Amino acid sequence: MKLEHPSDTRMSGRIASQRKKILIYGGSSSVGALAVKSASDVGYNVIATSSPSNQDFVSKHGAAHVIDHTLPFDQVLLSLIFRGPYDAVFDAIGTSTATELLGALQAEDGGVLYTTLPVMGREKLPANVERRFASYPDALEKELNADIRTWLYETYLPKGLADGKVTPPKVEKMEGGLEGVQQKVLDRMIAGGVSGRKLVMNPQ
To answer: 153 or 15: whose pLDDT is higher?
Structure first.
């Protein structure tokens, strides 16, 4: 996304003075929460979305404003437009609904929609909006990102977790082993109620 990262503490004031604004859709997910935290640490003005039950969690990571993305499509779109414009748009959810919504947000001026998932079925995007998917863990393994990888794993995350400034989503252990993946995990995800949580299952 060509954004600064908070490895340089001098960066915060410079970015904040430029009043750059970032939209992160799905701020309570694992990737989304870390994106909100790291962007706000640099000094970006972060607007995020989440369900009402996770708004406090997202705010604690540094979001300047959290929009309820469970509201009707048009209402969410108007709220996003009202809080914009944005220097970058990042989708940490990747569903077709999120893609269509963020495409509509960028339709007037065009732009790039960065996302965590590849295309899922038929998705409506304006011709002037590019959906750009990348496997972000894989990107960290590239040699050109070695300095960022070292900083993230050896400095930023250990320090953030130790002082409580980086808070992972709640972990919920699921029983049933691999045989229970379909019945207990996937069905649970489809039914909802896992927002802001990380489901963990012992394969045995």
So the answer is: 153
